[in-house]
Amino acid sequence: MTATGIYSPKPGAAPLSRMIAAQAVLETKMLLRNGEQLLLTVIIPTLLLVLFGTVDVVDTGDGEAVDFLAPGILALAVMSTAFTGQAIATGFERRYGVLKRLAASPLPRWGLMTAKTLSVLVTEVLQVTLVTVIALALGWDPQGDPFSVFLLLVLGTAAFSGLGLLMAGTLKAEATLAAANLVFLLLLVGGGVVVPLDRFPEAAQDVLGLLPISALSEGLRDVLQHGAGMPWGNLGILAAWAVAGLAAAGAFFRWE
């Protein structure tokens, strides 16, 4: 008689939670090792905060410049990671067939998207921490309810992630690269990040106020600078963009 052996490791796929965690760690490492991604997510927001916070370049109204700038830079950090960085990285992964190969692995497609989302959140935690430390060193005096800030950041991340994935999953990689960077620059100037929206014509203010970056930056500013309560209007705009962007990405995203 032949005894039945017990073999280790046991053949088969790893638990789903472990696969998602491993993919999220890999995505985060690749992002942090990419010089272009670091430029977008860390260096540019930090330089803007230090430059405009210490040099009187833009009239930010009454009070300290850093009190106006810090909420806008936090919004820019979210956009740079959840939208611009994710769109470019995912677009080139799609072009080179990485997404197609990963889709054929034991990790389900929704698990891959979950891992990418976790990577974005981890990066944003690092960004928010860095921006907060620098802003406090420049004399920032934040006000308001942290839970309101948390909701704004979460909905802002969802809105920009949906738009970034939609762009990456429908356009060619080169077009995504150009479009994502162009949108980043346009929203940096016209989204209330470093230039107050009231500096624009009234007709333009109504349109710009509906953009996700404007809703996020103005909502954060209302809470952190002015100590306002829950910014329901801005949260509603971000929620609408999040639902529309994620739904469109789910419907039109192409894996190859």
TrEMBL record:
<dbReference type="GO" id="GO:0046677">
    <property type="term" value="P:response to antibiotic"/>
</dbReference>
<feature type="transmembrane region" description="Helical">
    <location>
        <begin position="146"/>
        <end position="168"/>
    </location>
</feature>
<protein>
    <recommendedName>
        <fullName>Transport permease protein</fullName>
    </recommendedName>
</protein>
<feature type="transmembrane region" description="Helical">
    <location>
        <begin position="38"/>
        <end position="58"/>
    </location>
</feature>
<feature type="domain" description="ABC transmembrane type-2">
    <location>
        <begin position="32"/>
        <end position="256"/>
    </location>
</feature>
<keyword id="KW-1133">Transmembrane helix</keyword>
<feature type="transmembrane region" description="Helical">
    <location>
        <begin position="70"/>
        <end position="92"/>
    </location>
</feature>
<keyword id="KW-0046">Antibiotic resistance</keyword>
<keyword id="KW-1003">Cell membrane</keyword>
<dbReference type="GO" id="GO:0043190">
    <property type="term" value="C:ATP-binding cassette (ABC) transporter complex"/>
</dbReference>
<dbReference type="Pfam" id="PF01061">
    <property type="entry name" value="ABC2_membrane"/>
</dbReference>
<comment type="similarity">
    <text>Belongs to the ABC-2 integral membrane protein family.</text>
</comment>
<keyword id="KW-0812">Transmembrane</keyword>
<dbReference type="InterPro" id="IPR047817">
    <property type="entry name" value="ABC2_TM_bact-type"/>
</dbReference>
<dbReference type="InterPro" id="IPR051784">
    <property type="entry name" value="Nod_factor_ABC_transporter"/>
</dbReference>
<feature type="transmembrane region" description="Helical">
    <location>
        <begin position="118"/>
        <end position="140"/>
    </location>
</feature>
<dbReference type="InterPro" id="IPR000412">
    <property type="entry name" value="ABC_2_transport"/>
</dbReference>
<feature type="transmembrane region" description="Helical">
    <location>
        <begin position="175"/>
        <end position="197"/>
    </location>
</feature>
<keyword id="KW-0472">Membrane</keyword>
<dbReference type="InterPro" id="IPR013525">
    <property type="entry name" value="ABC2_TM"/>
</dbReference>
<keyword id="KW-0813">Transport</keyword>
<feature type="transmembrane region" description="Helical">
    <location>
        <begin position="232"/>
        <end position="253"/>
    </location>
</feature>
<dbReference type="GO" id="GO:0140359">
    <property type="term" value="F:ABC-type transporter activity"/>
</dbReference>
